[in-house]
Amino acid sequence: MRIRETIPQSWSGHSQSGLRYRGKEAPADSFILSEPQQFPQLKGQAQVSGHLLSDPQHLDYPSSRYEIRCYAPGPQGEVRSLSFEELVAAQERPFQPEFTFTVQGDAGRARRPDEKVGMVLPKDHSLQVDSVDMQYQSWGANRQYFQQMSEIGRVEQFQVRGLLSEQALPYAEKYLKEGGYTNYQLHPSEQTGRWLEDYSEPLLDGGRVVPAHFPSQGKPLSEVLKEARQARFQPHGLSGDFTNQGSVNSGDYQQVGAIQGKIHGETVYQAGSYIEGGNLLSGHRADGTPYVLVGQDSMALTKELLARQLGRTPEEQEVRQAVAADYGVQADQIFGIEQPGEFHLDMRMSPLGPGVMALQDSRLAAQMQAAWIREELGETMTPEWNQEVDAMVEKAEEAARYEELARRDLEKAGFQVVPVAGAFRNMNDTKVDGANFFNARHGTNPDGEKYTIMMGGTAKQEAYLADFLLGQGHLPVERLYFLDPEQNQETLPENGGLKCRTKPTGQLA
Prior knowledge:
This protein is an alpha/beta fold. It has helices spanning 84-90, 140-156, 169-178, 196-199, 221-233, 252-263, 296-310, 316-327, 362-377, 383-412, 459-471, 488-491, and strands spanning 13-14, 20-21, 37-42, 46-52, 69-73, 79-82, 109-110, 127-135, 159-164, 184-188, 201-202, 208-210, 268-270, 280-284, 290-295, 334-337, 349-353, 356-360, 416-420, 423-426, 429-436, 441-444, 450-454, 479-482, 502-508.
């Protein structure tokens, strides 16, 4: 027996603004149900319709049925569900597609030993996002996320830049124009890739860093990772047998990163370290000190790269100094963080505020998911299905042991750690996620309002996250967005998500 946990209830069709409603046909009287309250949610006190998350009719209101759901904090911990359609309509600043052009990329140049670079762009709310780069595809999750991000960008005042082939350009322009989308640019390129988060890191001075390229000779990097993980995990009785880093022997990362640099008019530097973007979390502490957290897998790969260059095993401080020089922060603010049972940090942790990090609590997530499934199935719960749910809960105990190691390293680095059930398993394949709220984008708009954009999930998962993050004050933002969860099944089994498919540019807020 298999179950498809219910996603937010919704109906098919489009609103007057072009915003898509999701899912099944609703009863006729649902179309005349109105939002009962008005909330000021934009600078200038623009009013938008909404209701409280605690409203018993929450799932019946139109704002709960949009493909993009938006929540905002209210007084006394009350969480408001806002009409995203009205948020878009209230945004008076028009965005139009400006131009398209072709660029030719190269692998960048090595940073000179005496050359200083600006800090890597932060991935927390200290970034004021100007644009978000994505690969544009004419089908699937990338196109859906491209459309949804462009709509949110109308509210939060950033544009979406699509990289695509020259041949696909006229079809993309026609499709987006007919769909009513305006807040984007398209950039034809001979080479692009889905996981733009991994290929390069923009710097606050306008430059861009691409990961080091490994020579083909020497020990295979899969073996380097295996040995490093054994050394770290074996003393704890844990296995390092999970997904390796993505494409360590390929020059594609450098080329795609260089293309992005050309689009933005940036100098492209080739790093001395090897770090995929999903394994690097950057931001600021409460006193403004910048930090860079790096997954231990990437520290191990960088150590191996330095060993090949130096002809000896480098000290840990030398590894930190190499990373610090590449990403523009002090070496004492470079921290190796244990992989929490995933190959990239951003699949199990995410910044909530200055010096505050959310970390997956697999025990809690499995217990909550099991309770929801048993509640939904009730008397139809079979012994076989009950065993499968129990197995999921038992497996979460092992995952929690990896998360404890990550928590140890985060606290050692001076972070406040907030455990949260932010990743839930796909009950049709419990080896992969069915929902992941860590792989998110954070930013501040030009009006100083903070926001977070997350992948979607089931109605109960989203309600829990909205209440935990906004109602309990763990996420100090003006708006929290959830995207259409229909894209989850296409991206999460490939070890990626929304953050993996996007790359923001901007400046300090």
